[in-house]
Every structure is written in structure tokens, then in C-alpha cells.
């Protein structure tokens, strides 16, 4: 007998390395994408309903699409189609991951909805099947399922789990407006025009820093090839980055396609100091602290 409802908690991600190759013929880019799951969470609750519908609460909920373009809805439809189920469920998303913030909030909701519907319907999909559906939904969705730390190649959807030797403390500054991921990639292509773009590869120094749990070494190795494009479209982010560096962050970078900015700190005490400075800097809307790695999509 199916449960009355199932709730899944799913984390945000930060890209500690985002290496981007030249545009492929299909319009995508090959990536070397080193993900770290951090403790900012959405929760997706799924319950039987007369028809598929999506609701959302929490910060910036008004910006979340509630139609069939929502990745949570698409996940439910994909699993239902594969197993011959009626996708008549109510999906409620309790948002805490920034919307359009470069932290994979939409992808997280897709992974959470997939796990929740699998549990509600008792379809018992294998991990491989769930990852296959995740990859069909979007490049960041598989990592939201897996969590921890991982290297994503191809479009970022082919994952290798990475060893981490400790906890890394982060501060995240949410910007006053969002940035469209496709627009940032288009700007990357524009800025790259006429240049030879090398194949992206994971940094050996960065992987070693993760494995050792060494924030100082990780700070020296973090990189984001999309950062120049994000700054080109949203120049004010440079002020946020500078404020965080000045407050003692070991590293400051745009998270993924932005516009959220991420600050790696030495420890929890330094993270609080950086967060306090950013909150009064006038350069951002909201400031949050989080540590990682944490687990991926999990039934609660």
C-alpha cells in the first residue's frame, strides 16, 4: 500500500571547479565540473491527487514555475511514463535554495521529486535507472541525487564520486536579481569567439585538496570558467566578491552560472565573520552559511 505522502530533502551545490569547453555541435559544452553538496536544502513533498500539480512556498517562491516546465513535474512525468503510472500527484516544493542562483535549486527539486515519487508509488527503480532519468532531465540533476562531492563530465551528468577528507565552510551571497544559465553560456561563447578553448580537465591539485580536507589548498585551486561571462552580464557581482575577500574569505567565486557568489573560509568562526561583513556591505540581498559535503536527495 502506498504512503499518504513522501517528503525528500535535497541540498544545493557549489561548483568548486567549473571547466568549460567550446560549444559542441548540439549547442552544449563539455564540462569538467567538480560539485560539492552543501547544507542549504529544498524539501519536496509528493502526495496522491486528482491531477499533477505543483505548489511552492519559501523565499522567492513566486519565481518558481508551477507548470510542466518545472523539473519536479518533469521528473514525476518521466518516472510515471517509464513505469506505466498515472502521474496524478501534488508536488509541494518548500524552497530554501536560491532561485536562479547557480546552486542547482531547480535540478535539486527534480531529483527530490523523482526519489519521492519512486517511494510513493513503490516503483523501486534502481539507482542506475534513477540516474538515467536524472540525466535526461538536466545536467545538474544527477549530482543532486548523489550529493557529497563528484566530478561531472560530458554535460556534467556523467559522475565520478570523489573522496573528501573533511568539512568545508562556505558563505553564500544572494544577488538582487537572477541570471539565466543559457544567457551566461551564450556570453561565454561570445567572449570565447576566435579563441582556442582547451578541453576541460579536473585540476589534480583541487582533487587532492578535497581528499585531504584542506581549505587553504582548495582555495588556491578553485576556478569557474563561467565567471567572466557572469561578471560581464552582472558587473556588480565584482563588488560582492571583493567584500567577501576583504572580510577574510580564502577564496571568492561566482557559483556556477551565478549570480550567487560563494566564499570559502578557513572554519565556521571565519564564515560567521565573512557573513556578517557581507550582510552590511550593501552588495547583496541575503547571506547564508553552509558546510559541505552533505548527502544527496534523502527521504525524511
From TrEMBL:
HAMAP family: IspE. InterPro entries: GHMP_kinase_C_dom (IPR013750), GHMP_kinase_C_sf (IPR036554), GHMP_kinase_N_dom (IPR006204), IspE (IPR004424), Ribosomal_Su5_D2-typ_SF (IPR020568), Ribsml_uS5_D2-typ_fold_subgr (IPR014721). Pathway: Isoprenoid biosynthesis; isopentenyl diphosphate biosynthesis via DXP pathway; isopentenyl diphosphate from 1-deoxy-D-xylulose 5-phosphate: step 3/6. The active site is at 13, 140. The lineage of its organism: Bacteria, Bacillati, Actinomycetota, Actinomycetes, Kitasatosporales. Its EC number is 2.7.1.148. Gene3D superfamilies: 3.30.230.10, GHMP kinase, C-terminal domain (3.30.70.890). Keywords: ATP-binding, Isoprene biosynthesis, Kinase, Nucleotide-binding, Transferase. It catalyses: 4-CDP-2-C-methyl-D-erythritol + ATP = 4-CDP-2-C-methyl-D-erythritol 2-phosphate + ADP + H(+). GO terms for molecular function: 4-(cytidine 5'-diphospho)-2-C-methyl-D-erythritol kinase activity; ATP binding. This is 4-diphosphocytidyl-2-C-methyl-D-erythritol kinase.
Amino acid at each position: 500500500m502506498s504512503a499518504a505522502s513522501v517528503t525528500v530533502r535535497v541540498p544545493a551545490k557549489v561548483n568548486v571547479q567549473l571547466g568549460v569547453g567550446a560549444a559542441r555541435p548540439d549547442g552544449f559544452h563539455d564540462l569538467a565540473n567538480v560539485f560539492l553538496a552543501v547544507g542549504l536544502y529544498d524539501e519536496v513533498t509528493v502526495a496522491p491527487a486528482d491531477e499533477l500539480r505543483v505548489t511552492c512556498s519559501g523565499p522567492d517562491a513566486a519565481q518558481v514555475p508551477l507548470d510542466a516546465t518545472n523539473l519536479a513535474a518533469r521528473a514525476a512525468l518521466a518516472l510515471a511514463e517509464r513505469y506505466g503510472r498515472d502521474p496524478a500527484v501534488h508536488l509541494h516544493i518548500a524552497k530554501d535554495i536560491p532561485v536562479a542562483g547557480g546552486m542547482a535549486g531547480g535540478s535539486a527539486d527534480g531529483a527530490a521529486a523523482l526519489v519521492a515519487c519512486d517511494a510513493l508509488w513503490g516503483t523501486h527503480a534502481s539507482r542506475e535507472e534513477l540516474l538515467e532519468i536524472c540525466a535526461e532531465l538536466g545536467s545538474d540533476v544527477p549530482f543532486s541525487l548523489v550529493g557529497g562531492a563528484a566530478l561531472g563530465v560530458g554535460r556534467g551528468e556523467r559522475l565520478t564520486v570523489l573522496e573528501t577528507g573533511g568539512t568545508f565552510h562556505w558563505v553564500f551571497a544572494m544577488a538582487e536579481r537572477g541570471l539565466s544559465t543559457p544567457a551566461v553560456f551564450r556570453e561565454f561563447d561570445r567572449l570565447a569567439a576566435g579563441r582556442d578553448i582547451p578541453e576541460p580537465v579536473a585540476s589534480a591539485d583541487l582533487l587532492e585538496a578535497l581528499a585531504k580536507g584542506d581549505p587553504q589548498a582548495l582555495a588556491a585551486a578553485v576556478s569557474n570558467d563561467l565567471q567572466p561571462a557572469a561578471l560581464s552580464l552582472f558587473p556588480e557581482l565584482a563588488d560582492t566578491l571583493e567584500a567577501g575577500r576583504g572580510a577574510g574569505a580564502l577564496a571568492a567565486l561566482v557559483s556556477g552560472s551565478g549570480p550567487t557568489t560563494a566564499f570559502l573560509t578557513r572554519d565556521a568562526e571565519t564564515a560567521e565573520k565573512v557573513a556578517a561583513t557581507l550582510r552590511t556591505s550593501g552588495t547583496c540581498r541575503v547571506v547564508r552559511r553552509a558546510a559541505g559535503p552533505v548527502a544527496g536527495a534523502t527521504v525524511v
